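I hope you will forgive my troubling you with a question about protein structure. Here, with my thanks, is the record as I have it:
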Amino acid sequence: MAITSAICNSFKQEILVEGHNFTNGTDAFKLALYTSSATLSKATTAYTAPADGTADPTNTYEVSSTSTGYTTGGNALTSTTPVLSGDTACCLFASTSWGSSASFTARGCLIYNSTNSNKAVCAINFGADKTVTTGTFTIQFPAQTAGNAIIQIA
């Protein structure tokens, strides 16, 4: 099992036929955290809630909701209106954090559209396990520019 950073193939097709509206407040996007045992990649099509969010590990290897400060399904994301950077369309999300007393380990995440049947947008591998112990776990997104933005269409 592995987490491979990629824009999901299903998302690439869906933006041409169904739409994912990243303009702030139109569609709701979320970010769920996963352990190193999860399998996420360009083939991921949707967020699936674990059968038991309190199991350790969960059947989907999402971070367990028994971990301090994490709720199954992850955090809501706040997006900005997509912009063009040169010839590349770029999206940006505001930073998101889990509690001031969070305690868990995550290896990666899945951004998904909770308004649109939990359809997957992209999988992200953090490059190593990231652990927080009685602190704040924060994800900061890169600049909304070509070559940097977390979601880019060139």
Summary: The longest strand covers residues 119-139. The helical segments are 9-17.
